[in-house]
Write a structure and sequence with these properties.
This protein is mostly beta strands. The chain has no helices and 8 strands. The chain has strands spanning 15-20, 27-31, 36-40, 47-55, 68-77, 82-92, 95-105, 114-118. The strands form 2 sheets. The chain has a 4-stranded antiparallel beta sheet with strand order 1-2-3-8, with no helix packed on it. It is globular and about 45 Å long.
């Protein structure tokens, strides 16, 4: 079972690359020290969680230590059930990047984003 982590574990880490899946809803952060972290959502019934927008340039997060890595979220209800906006704010000396995720469900399923250390090779 994967242990969910807070993105703040990236503070002080230097990333070598960030890979985005073809569907756009999964990011893999590859660290210079060989560790890999994945940001995604395990989709289930009656929910949807997607990466809506990348504000900034992901390349600004590579080849310089991460100075800021934080999560901010807010949610509410809509006609279908509930929703959650989750923002991940990252910064290096090169620039800032915000990842804007949107989740909605019938109110009984997760609308959150998962962040885990992975052992797979990408």
């Amino acid at each position: 079972m994967q242990q969910y982590q807070d993105v703040s574990v990236l503070v002080g880490v230097t990333l070598e690359a960030i890979h985005r899946s073809t569907d756009g809803d999964e990011l893999v952060f590859i660290c210079k020290d060989g560790r890999r972290w994945k940001m995604f959502h395990d989709q289930d019934c009656c929910e949807s969680v997607t990466l809506e927008d990348v504000i900034g340039n992901l390349d600004d997060l590579t080849d310089a230590p991460i100075l800021q890595a934080e999560e901010v979220s807010e949610g509410g209800t809509n006609d279908w059930g509930s929703y959650t906006w989750t923002f991940y704010k990252f910064a290096t000396i090169k620039g800032y990047v915000t990842l804007r995720w949107y989740g909605e469900s019938n109110g009984y399923y997760s609308e959150g984003v998962n962040f885990v250390e992975v052992k797979e090779t990408y």
